[in-house]
Amino acid sequence: MKYPITVYGDPILRKRAENIGKDTEGLAEIIENMWETMYYADGVGLAAPQTGMSIRMFVIDASSGADEEPELKDFKKVFINPEIIELSGEKWAFNEGCLSLPEIREDVLRPDVVRIRYFDENFVEHDEIYKGYAGRIIQHEYDHLEGKLFIDYLSPLRKRLLKSKLNDISRGKVQTHYKIKPPVK
């Protein structure tokens, strides 16, 4: 089942998500639906708050970056209750987009390396280090669990220049090929 994507203006995108347990009802189905939703919307990552659920989980598929980083060929992971342990390395700019901010793309500076502790879909704990494209996606999706959006990294001037687009998104006045859920005020 494809979930509608929650868009800018909905308070759930600004709320810190809650941890879940392995006994969370329907967890396998939620994960399956998140994959289906992400692929349908042509995303490389999707966080649960973007589907209207304030839980600490996201899915990513970084395999589209395999041309530049061959080790990403089959990189597809579920992150449950993740916690970033450390961010390090040189900050670099990358043009980011977000399914919850349709029609907006901006250069965002983020550190190159992220160390993250999380559980996979089988509730096996991992403590891993990622960099490059995968590290970038992980940081972006993790921000959703903390109530942050990539536009929070932009200068005040750049945010002012995007104000009318953001207002349109928050009113549901945006064209997407995927279903959106207009903000609940």
Can you tell me about this structure?
The chain has 185 residues and is of the alpha+beta class. The chain is 23% helix and 30% strand. It is globular and about 45 Å long.
- One letter per element, helices H and strands E, the order comes to EHEEEEEHHE
Which structural class best describes the helix and strand composition? Answer: alpha+beta
CATH architecture level-2 label:
Alpha-Beta Complex
- Average pLDDT over all residues: 96
For CATH, the homologous superfamily is named as Peptide deformylase
Biggest sheet character = 5 strands, antiparallel
- Per the principal axes of the C-alpha atoms, what is the gross shape? globular
The number of distinct β-strands equals 7
Oligomer: single chain
Task: Give the helix proportion (percent range).
Answer: 10-25%
Unreliable spans are: none
How many structural domains? Answer: 1
Ends: how far apart?
25 Å
Q: Which strand order does the major sheet show?
A: 2-3-4-5-6
Q: Radius of gyration, rounded?
A: 16 Å
Tally of DSSP helical segments: 3
CATH topology, anyone?
Answer: Peptide Deformylase
